[in-house]
Structure formats: C-alpha cells, structure tokens
Amino acid sequence: MSMNGYVRAGLLVGMLAVGMGAWGQDAVPPVPAPVVPEQKTVPPVLPPDQNAPAPAAPVDQAAPAVPAAPAPDQAAPAAADQAPAAPASAGTVAVTPMVKGKKEKEAYTGPTEIITLEPTPMLDEEGRQRTDPDGKPMFNPPVKQQRDKKGHPLFDDKGKPVFQTKDELGYDEAGHRIKAVKEKPPKTVSVSIEHGTLTVDGMTGKAGLNYEIADFKYIYLYAPWVGLTVVSSEPFPGATEQKDAFNENTLTVRAGEHTYQLYSDKKLLGKKPAAAYVAVDREFSLATKQPLVGYGNLRKPPYAFPGSKENVLGKGVVAPPLPASLRPQTVLGPCPAGQMRPASVPGQPAPDCVPIKGAGVN
Question: What is the pLDDT at residue 14?
Fold first, then answer.
C-alpha cells in the first residue's frame, strides 16, 4: 500500500472513532431482534390429474422489536395509568356491596311504666302507726318496681313485678346499677326499766314495769288528778330544768305540788346524777283512774303508752300477784304482714289487728 493509502485509511479510522463516540453519548443502541429460524412451508402433493396452482412462496416473519429499556432515572408508568378506563354503559345500575356488621336491635314492645306501691303506715313494735314530733302519722317511702340492665321494668318468671328492697334497687333508665346508700344511724340514748315501780306522792301507782327504750326522747307520767308530765334528758320548748332528777336507779320530778318517782332495778342514765327537763300538760286526760307510764318521741298529744314486758323472776322466786290496779298493760305482739293495730285509748284493752288500707298497686 502506498503512503497515500495509509493516510486515507488513518483518516477513515479516526473519523469512524469520533462518530462512534458521539453516537454512544446521544443515543442508546437498539437491542438486536432475536433470530427466528426461517420456516418453510411444504406444499401438499397433488395427484397428476389436478392442475392446482403452485403454492405461494413463504414470507419471512420478523419478530416484533423489543422496546428499549427505560433509563435508570426514568420511572416506569403505573399499570393503572396505562389501562384504559372502561366505558360505563347507559343501562348499568350500580350495586352497593353488602357490609357485614352488628345486627339491628329488636324494638322493645313490653311495659315501660314503673309500678309504684302506695306508702304504708310506719308501725311500732305493737303494730301501731308511729307519729313524728309534730304528731303527724308517719309513712314508709313508696316502693318502686326494679328496672333490668336495659332500663326496662323487671318481672319475675311468673310475670309478677319485682320491687326494690333495702339492699337491691336494680338499675336506672340508662342501665346503670343503683347503689344502696348506707346511712349512718343517728346517735341514740337507750334506757332500760326493769321491775320498775311508779309512785305518785309516795303512793304506788304501777308496779312490775319492764321497758326497753332504744331511742329515749320523752317519758310520760300520768295521774288523773295531776295530768300528764313530759320528761326528757334534753331541753325542749316549754320545759323547765330540774337538777339531779336522774339519779342512778330513780327518776324524781315535780309537777306543781305533786311528786312522781320512777324506780328501776337497772340504772336509768348512768352513775352520775343528771338534770331532767319537765313540762306538765294539765288539760290531758284519759278514761282511766290509775296512773300510767309511757314513752315516745312526741311532746304533745297523741302520747304513746306501750305495753310492758312480762316480769322475769329468778329461779325459786315466787312473788304474790299484784293488784289489778297496779298491774301495767302487757306489751302486745306485732301484727301479721299487711295488718296494723288501730289507735286505742291508753288504759283500755287494745283492739285487734286489721288489714292496712291503701296498700294496693298504684
């Protein structure tokens, strides 16, 4: 090769190298298509008597070109963006999918009103109705029907209403349990009169007195020729103080020109002498000619004269019977459930128990 040939060849190689470098920076070379082997179709052999046209020459089918891979800094489009939106047809109705959840609560169709019982009389140990300090009859609070956990009226398995008790109040309308409030009992003063004797102006009026006064408020001392004397250990309106009236086993008070003395085998208020507060109701009278002893929480009529307990004597002790005029009225037992004892005149035989009126369902 001549010198000119070498020069031309070098220039051609240099130009080719520069071109290839520029092309490598601006474009990505296409991926070569896979080589698919040529498929030749063999024509069927026809019998000699048929003049069929010659089969067409096979056509080479090139494989489709594979798209170029995206550059590293370019993210591939999401499949959802490439998928065409399905056209909504005019007659298609949208169907809401079923959502599983809690079942709807069945509507309550039972009773909704709470049954309330009418207030009943508050009775003492002998079945008589108690009175407040103003002399008014006392009643128990009305009893209401319980509610269940859903706030509905509660019935037992026989369909009868279940009422509230002291310790079980049931639930409120919102289904919250009602807690029983424990009230602290008030402070009380108890007095025991055992084998007691009442004298008026030194004469025995009553003997064999036995009382257990759990909450001592007032003691009543009655004599037909004096009237009724109210005695308390605490001051009250209209009362006058008499010092050292309570002295161990005796209570001695004056009602004008007359003197009462109540004796007990047990100490009344304690070892130390204590004052008594006394008021005399001279207008009060009873249909009896004998002195009486009573106690209660009123300082004005109606005064209470509970019966006395039976005398309990020691073994081998036999006491002569008291005269009828000196014997106190015997304490009465409680009435059966749903019954009470009507008010009676002190000193007279007590009436029998009768059904309580107005104890029905409201």
Answer: 57
